[in-house]
Every structure is written in structure tokens, then in C-alpha cells.
Design goal:
This protein is 10% helix and 36% strand. The protein has 2 helices and 13 strands. The relative contact order is 0.24.
Length: 189
């Protein structure tokens, strides 16, 4: 069984809904969501909040200005303990509006690997002209197309979607990691 990792807040009343500006030592147009390895070092990644922090910082942060996953170092350590190696992590520092560091225990995670496993006949999808998926009304995966041992990867033709295995989902939940919302593919729209 495989699950889609959503980039939404678990609890809109308690979890931090962050808004700010993102930059790296290589500029602010970096992308961490195309499934490809980034071949050069990112030595500085900074997210500056536009408003003071309001709410709790979870282990998986939903930050729309950062094109990639933002995970606590605890989650990264969990991935490493599970021998999951198809990701890069770049330390992220979060600053409040007065430039005081409020969180340094986070990384931007670049998931490496794209798998073409959409069941085109059973899914209900709309496409861009280039063949990438624009809208999902119903998504069905062909699990037989997923390589054995693939515990986290990006979906071909919609690389902004991260897919995780049952094994990884269970480990995240057993470790009581916060901020994670998972959907069965057929329930995602």
C-alpha cells in the first residue's frame, strides 16, 4: 500500500501557518521538488517570516514558498534509520520578522526519484499540454510499477506529489511525528 503525503496543516487552529520569504546562497529560485539530485552545495537556506510565529511548529511544515519538503531533523534521522537514502537534506533556518532565529532544527528535503506508476485507465486526470498532470479527480496507482524497496518517491508527471510506502507511513506514525497528512491515492483530489 502506498500513500500520498499532503502539504496541508493537520490542525488549522494549532499548527503554524507560515508565510514568508525564502532564499538560499544560490538564490531564491531553487526547486527541491523535481525528483532530481541537486549537484551543488546549498550552504545557507533561510526562511524569514513575514509575521511573528503563531502556532506550533510541527515535524512536517507546510510552507508554500519552499518548493520541497520541510522536515524536522528528527524526521530526517528516522529516514536514515530506516535506511532510506534517496534524499538530500539542506539545513533550513527560520527567522522571525525581527531576524531572531526561532528554529534551526529543520531541513529542506529533496526527494530523489520519480516513478511512473499512474494507472491511466482507472484514474480521472486532466493534463497540461506537455503531458504533466494538472488536476486529479481520482488517482489510482499501479503498484506493480513501483520498484521494490521504494519507500519515498515523487510521482511522474506530477513531481510535486510525494508518495510514501506503508512502512514509512507506519514508522512516522509510530514515532509520533507531527504535521503529517496522508491520503490513499483514490481519496486524493
Amino acid at each position: 500500500m502506498y500513500w500520498l503525503l499532503s502539504n496541508e496543516l493537520v490542525d488549522e487552529d494549532r499548527d503554524a501557518d507560515l508565510s514568508g520569504n525564502f532564499t538560499t546562497n544560490l538564490g531564491d529560485d531553487m526547486s527541491f521538488d523535481d525528483g532530481e539530485q541537486i549537484p551543488f552545495p546549498i550552504t545557507q537556506a533561510i526562511y524569514s517570516l513575514m509575521e511573528p510565529l503563531n502556532g506550533r511548529l510541527t515535524d512536517h511544515l507546510s510552507i508554500s514558498e519552499i518548493p520541497g519538503l520541510v522536515l524536522s531533523n528528527k524526521v530526517c534521522q528516522l529516514l536514515e534509520s530506516l535506511k532510506i537514502s534517496n534524499f538530500q537534506r539542506f539545513p533550513l533556518t527560520i527567522f522571525d520578522t525581527e531576524k531572531k532565529e526561532i528554529a534551526g532544527g529543520y531541513s529542506i528535503v529533496n526527494v530523489i526519484g520519480v516513478v511512473d506508476c499512474v494507472d491511466q485507465d482507472a484514474s480521472n486526470l486532466e493534463y497540461y499540454d506537455d503531458g504533466d498532470i494538472e488536476f486529479i479527480d481520482k488517482l489510482v496507482l499501479k503498484e506493480e510499477n513501483i520498484p521494490e524497496g521504494a519507500d519515498i518517491f515523487r510521482l511522474a508527471r506530477r513531481t510535486t506529489l510525494v508518495i510514501v510506502s506503508q512502512k514509512l507511513k507506519d514508522a512516522i506514525e509510530q514515532a509520533a511525528m507531527t504535521g503529517f497528512v496522508f491520503y490513499k491515492p483514490e481519496d486524493y483530489a
